[in-house]
Amino acid sequence: MKTAFDEMHGAEGAVREQYEVYARWLAQQPRDVMQSRREEAEVIFRRVGITFAVYGAKDEDGSGTERLIPFDLIPRVIPQREWAAMEKGLAQRVTALNRFIHDVYHGQEILKAGIVPAEQVLGNAQFRPEMMGVNVPGDVYSHISGIDIVRAGQADGSGEYYVLEDNLRVPSGVSYMLENRKMMMRLFPDLFSMHRVEPVAHYPDLLLETLRAVAPSGVNEPTVVVLTPGMYNSAYFEHAFLAQQMGVELVEGQDLFVKEGFVYMRTTQGPRRVDVVYRRVDDDFLDPKAFRPDSTLGCAGLLDVYRAGNIALCNAVGTGIADDKSIYPYVPKMIEFYLGEKPILNNVPTWLCREKDDLAYVLDHMHELVVKEVHGAGGYGMLVGPAATKAEVAEFREVVKAKPTNYIAQPTLSLSTCPTFVDSGVAPRHIDLRPYVLSSGKTVQTVPGGLTRVALKEGSLVVNSSQGGGTKDTWVLED
């Protein structure tokens, strides 16, 4: 059996150029020193409160759902030339996706052209008819995008980058990218004098700049807030962290109210008008008057203010139509349709179970494929065929047959591996990468690297933190 592409080592075990200095350093580190550094990182992360709530999960003693996302000490290193190409591909993709969302809520030219099936969009749970004809600043809907990238290939070849999925609603994880870098600089300062690593610490500044740039016209000094569902949300640490880093208020729905066509937040000095909301609340819960009437997480009347152009929401309402897994297969065609260009970053080949021939193939080859629920997230609602039992495959086959439109399938990619410090020592583990792309309508910006997620279980391809995955610092080396 061929082994996966190794980020640090070539086919014959030779160290790749971008890792040469680091590999020499790592070879000189005693295991007990690395172990103590790992323990130190865990203590610091707990002290700072960098935890992740796993819904429905219980610790062994039956209590508590707050867990650390395990942090790995060995960085993932990307050479500048690879990053430069990836960055161009990310900008191209996010630009096309924003064009698509605008088109869906305006002229629907891509639907009329038959490139994306109309029923896939108009019958989609993420389509928001309330947004039809609504103009948003700069025609940008996804201001903050998290694009999941995997590298596939064999050890004896060159790994190729693919886009696994697009996260355009409320992508999370950027706080771990920032905290991982701070931790590496604290634990191993000597490494940063030996390598010229592109910085990521300016991300909160870029984020605030992006948010301020989409404020309603005529507002010169916009008031920006971060809207959180509250402290019981799995990503609450990140909401509080980003608000603090940007120097803006962290608010919950109960802190906001609508009056005379504007949104205000309650403060100790009295009401203060809000111009831009970086919302970490899903569409359904944003406005009980417009969406779910039982929601206590949003602000009643918010959508009316938004539609009138008196507040900016980042990301826009209705953005989810473009990060649905049933829409993902059409993104390369979107790039050609809107930009007249060939995709720089390729999709993973995908079978749509809603198509008769695709469904037949998937049902026959399910034991070889990864089958995903189109609305699923976090590693749930999916089957990894090669890792499943015959009974699990048979059971999932019946589920897909019952509702084929709910599923897509992809080949089981041989995800690249990166050396990882585990209990048994240094061993290869599968990884992916989530770069964060910021779009204001004037610029598209990406901090170098992103969040590398790692499947800590040997042989596992599931990197999600909710499924036991961890994270690594991601280094993009300057030339």
From TrEMBL:
Coiled coil: none annotated. Transmembrane segments: none annotated. Residues 75-455 form the Circularly permuted ATP-grasp type domain. It comes from the Bacteria. The lineage of its organism: Bacteria, Pseudomonadati, Pseudomonadota, Betaproteobacteria, Burkholderiales. This is Circularly permuted type 2 ATP-grasp protein.
